[in-house]
Amino acid sequence: MHESRLPQEHPLHRPRHGGRQLTALVCALVFFAAPTLGWVFGARPAEIENRPLAPFPSLGDGWGFFTNMSQWATDHLTFREGAVSAADGVSRGLFGEPAPLGQGKNPQGPVGPAAPDQEPATDQSSGFRKVLEGRGGWLYFGYDIEGKCVPARPLDATIAQLNKLRSVVEATGRRFVLVVEPDKSTMVPEHLPSHYAGKDCSTQAREEFWRRMPAEAGAVDLRPALRKAAEAAGRPIYPKLDTHWDGEGGVVMARAVAEAARPGVTERWTTERRGEARSDADLPPLMGRGKAEKTTQLYALRPDGEHDRARPVDTDFRKPVRVTSEQGPGVVPERTILLGDSFSIITSRYLAAGFADLTLMNYVDFAQKIDAHASLLADRQVVVFSMVERNLVAGRSPLTEDRVVERIGQVLRANPIR
C-alpha cells in the first residue's frame, strides 16, 4: 500500500503531494517553463562569456556526448545573463564581495571574434580567480597570474621549441619573426590589488620570461615601444575593463612586425588619430557583471607618409584571411603570413596598410587543423608567430607542439624559397 493511502494517524503516513513537494514542483515548473516560454516568444540565449555558445554534443563524441551536455544546457538557458547579473548584484549588496561566478572549470579565455586562446581552467579553490579586481575598478584577466605560477611546461622547454620552430623556417630561406604581446598586468601593474594569490610567483616568472625570451628565443620585445606610446597618449593603452591593448598597441605591433620583416621599411610611416570604435569589453561578463562598453582609438597610417592605407579587415581569423595592398614606399613587398591571436584583431587594420600580401589566421585553429592549413605556408617568404605573454610563459602554445612543428617543417622543406 502506498504511504499516502495509510490512515493519517499512522506514523508512516505521508501525503502524496505535501506542501514542500508542491513548492518544489512549482519552482521546477517556473524554472523550466519560463525559459521555454521566453524562447517561444523570441528570447534567445546570449554569448556572455566572450566565446560562442557550446554546440549541441554529437553522438560521435562517445562519452563526450554526456559530459558536454551540461555545458550546452547551461549556455542555452534563456535569461541566463539576467540571472548572472542578479546573483552578482545580490552578492555585492549583501556580502560586499563579487559572486563566485565563472570561477570554476572553464577552458575559455577572453578573445575577440577569433578562436579562443584555449586557456585552461581557473580553480577558485586554488586562490586564483578568472578575473582579478584591481584598484579603481580596474580588471585583469586572472590567467595573467595563474599561468605564470602554474605553468604546464617549463620555460626552458618552450624556448627550445621556439628555437626549433625558427630553425625549421629559416632553413628554407624564409624570415622568421616571433612577437610576444605583453599581458595587461605587465604593462599596467599600478592598478593591481596590493595583495592577491600568486603575486610573488607571477612577478618572479614574469621577470625571468622577459629576461630570457628576447635574448634566447629572439622574440620582439614590444614593451619599450608600448610604454613610449602610452606616454604620448597620456594614458594607459590597455583599457580599464578589457585585457587587450588599444589602437596604439595595434600600431606599435604593426610597425614592429614590418621592421622585423624588412628593416628600415617604416622610416616614412606617419600616424594620426582618426575616430573611435566602440565594442564590448571582455572581462566584466567573465565575472557576472554583464556587458560593458570599451572605446578603441583608431588611427590613420600612411606608409609612404602621404596616403592613409589603414582599413578594416575581416577579423574572423578562425579561417585564413588574405589582404593585399599596393606596393610602394613603406610597404613590405614579401609575401607574409601572420599566425596570431585575439590581439591581432585590433592590429589587423594597420598590418593591412604595411604589407603588400598578408595572410592572417588564428594560430589555435591553424594548429588544430595543421594538415588542412599547413599549405598556407608554401609560398610565404616571411612567417610571423604572434602570441600573448600568458600563453607562452605557461607553455600552452599549440604552435610549439612537436606534431605541429614537424608538419610545418615538411611543408616548408617541400617548398623552399630561392
UniProtKB/TrEMBL annotation:
Q: Which domain of life is it from?
A: Bacteria
Single Gene Ontology BP annotation: alginic acid biosynthetic process
- Which chain regions cross the lipid bilayer? 21-42
Family annotation (InterPro entries): ALGX/ALGJ_SGNH-like
Show the segment(s) annotated as Disordered.
95-127, 263-289
Pathway given for this chain reads:
Glycan biosynthesis; alginate biosynthesis
Q: Which GO terms describe its molecular function?
A: hydrolase activity; transferase activity
Q: Which Pfam families match?
A: ALGX
Q: Keyword set for this entry? A: Alginate biosynthesis, Hydrolase, Membrane, Periplasm, Signal, Transferase, Transmembrane, Transmembrane helix
Q: Where in the cell is it found?
A: Periplasm
> Where do the AlgX/AlgJ SGNH hydrolase-like domain residues begin and end?
131-298
**What GO terms fall under cellular component here?**
periplasmic space
Per the record's keyword annotation, is Signal included, yes or no?
yes
Name the record gives this protein:
SGNH hydrolase-like domain-containing protein, acetyltransferase AlgX
Which organism is the protein's source?
A: Streptoalloteichus hindustanus
